[in-house]
Amino acid sequence: DIERGTSYLRLRPDRVAMQDATAQMAMLQFISSGLPRVAVPSTIHCDHLIEAQIGGEKDLARAKDINKEVYKFLETAGAKYGVGFWKPGSGIIHQIILENYAFPGLLMIGTDSHTPNGGGLGGLCIGVGGADAVDVMADIPWELKCPKVIGVRLTGKLSGWTSPKDVILKVAGILTVKGGTGAIVEYHGPGVDSISCTGMATICNMGAEIGATTSLFPYNARMEAYLKSTGREGVASAANSVKHLLTPDAKAPYDELIEIDLSTLEPHVNGPFTPDLANPISQLGDAAKKNDWPVDIRVGLIGSCTNSSYEDMGRCASIVKEALGHGVKSKIPFNVTPGSEQVRATIERDGIAQTLRDFGGTVLANACGPCIGQWDRKDVKKGEKNTIVTSYNRNFTGRNDANPATHCFVTSPELVTALSIAGRLDFNPMKDELTGADGKKFRLSDPFGDELPTRGFDPGQDTYEHPPADGTKVKVDVSPTSDRLQLLEPFDKWNGKDLTDLTILIKVKGKCTTDHISAAGPWLKYRGHLDNISNNMFITATNAENGELNKVRNQKTGEWGPVPGTARAYKAAGIPWCVVGDENYGEGSSREHAALEPRHLGGRAIIVKSFARIHETNLKKQGLLPLTFANPSDYDKIQPADKLSLLGLKDLAAGKPVECEIKHQDGKSERIKLNHSLNEQQIAWFKAGSALNRMKELAAK
User: Fold this and answer.
1) How far apart are the C-alpha atoms of 358 and 366, rounded to whole Å?
2) What is the pLDDT of residues 221-274, one digit of tens each?
3) Is 37 among the catalytic positions?
4) Choice among 15, 45, 48, 222 that is catalytic
């Protein structure tokens, strides 16, 4: 019997998608498996390594030059092992998937946490780490704990300044960043039909911010229209023939039910520093003053994988045209990121891009850019307190520009545009007036825009490279002297003994996302070189011992130093270590480097109050023990100088707690219980040293 939240499912996904930052490690792991070719349709998408500096064309050319070694590796590895290759400039992975591969009823995994974007087209699209992708590409059933189902019933109708983004911003405020963990969010109800297909994708995309396994909308006429507009009439016809299987059953049982009336839903601006701090636009100004958030906005940014559709751009252009008609432009720098080459080419053809440039906007490359920290920002110094507003999905500390003092707020692209005209957080376009160049007051009209281009999409440049039928003669080179790529060495097997006297590398205080464990931005260039990227491990996590970043005490020497350097010192001295963390540890990005780096530098266990789903799985895959306090208050019993011993590991079994002995500095000791969610297969990964090691053991047999 399958029990939600308990049973493990063994699934056969239809497709695998990988973005270039995570594809490097995924393909390196696949190469080390020794398999000749992927077993399911798979694609690589070059979107993460393009830094926003000047503008789209020049930034793309620069990225192609400085990343040529990585792009060549991904291109040749794709050709050799049967993986499609979307070249740099093609667009953001999730938009490419929506335009080309997603369909109602699809089961897909992607090595990016925002893979659920495909739920806007009725697909069950789930973000995973690279090792999970390797399993599926190797024809091994993919394991997933059976999710619970959270129903979100939508009534009423979207109108005015309220957009699809406001639905997920509202849901995030209700469920928080961990409220969706271990669950699929299923949207349903009569309000669904008032949302466009790309709007539904926006909502599903940002479901990652509540920890949801994925999010899903039922098949409807809006999806049918999008399929036809993107040249997939046959898919639409097939979906129409089985529509009863792609829509909710009557009286479907939900583990939790949320109801939202779209007719009364107010536009939201969430943040700063966390995407679940929900601020209705009518309350934002007062909240900013009360909390001492900088009211003056320094930069407005629209686009990203969450909000870069033709409809999004068109609605922003309607606001811009009205402002320009009054002689008003953006008061602040305004950056625009098209989601794909198809969207870029179409908004260029239809004059939307030029309208946004006339407003003062800079059209960036078809890539992730500032959303993931790929932004060469020059207008503020590090440490300078400032505010930016974006239509992105995440706003963790320092995520966009590596400045921990930047207050980032996420909202709809329409509100970003309106706030950029005013240049202030306390502007509400629904009631406040602006002053035109002639000195007259005016109020912005409700935004509007075509859901789909009336003249059809312009595909733009052809940026896809299909793998040859036979790739055996293709050569894949990884130079031993490269600082960007490094072939993987197998992790050591468990020695069969208890893990005793573990030193605590760091006791993390508060929020610890995968950004805190393995920062992005300038570190993205090392995603294919495990040893080099390990120099960013925990550098932005807060040390509970001193409240500082990247400063921990070496428990052997007593000296203070950076976290990665201290971990390397422990590894060189043969000292095994662990990490102690707080709630929802590892939320955010799917990056498996946040698990690979601790394993590479000698870590053996991560002990926390609770885990985010993807990160917990990634730790298991790399042979680390992910453990949770049976009593969360036991977190307070552990001090940084204590030694921890994990006992009874020879009898490690599914559902059986692990006993942990805490040896305090004063010589006293006590024991606590730690829980885990390892099943028998995952225990075999731990014993073998990693899931990849276990795969090789089974292949050898």
Assistant:
1) 20
2) 999 999 999 999 999 999 999 999 999 998 999 999 999 999 999 999 999 999
3) no
4) 48
In terms of residues, how long is the chain?
A: 701
pTM of the model: 0.93
Q: Catalytic one among 340, 589, 590, 677?
A: 589
Residues ≥6 apart with Cβ < 8 Å to 480: none
Please answer whether residues 620 and 686 qualify as being in contact, where contact means their C-beta atoms are separated by less than 8 angstroms.
yes
Cα–Cα distance measured from residue 435 to residue 282, given in angstroms and rounded to the nearest whole number: 20
Residue 701 confidence (pLDDT) above 90: no
Which segments of 345-487 are extended strands (E)?
A: 361-363, 386-390, 406-410, 434-435, 441-442, 464-465
**Annotated catalytic residue: which of 394, 568, 599, 600?**
394
Annotated active-site residue 48? The verdict is: yes
Report d(CA 527, CA 47) in Å as an integer: 14
Per annotation, catalytic residue among 20, 42, 45, 47: 47
Mention every residue, 6+ apart, whose C-beta is less than 8 A from residue 239: 103, 104, 105, 122, 219, 223, 224, 227, 246
Tokens of 318: 């309607």
> In terms of Cα–Cα distance, which of 162, 375, 164, 205 is closest to 306?
205
CB 374 within 8 A of CB 51: yes
Distance of CA 194 to CAs 223, 244, 452, Å?
A: 12, 20, 14
Per the CB < 8 A criterion, the answer to whether 42 and 83 are in contact is: yes
The encoded tokens of residue 652 equal: 């490690």
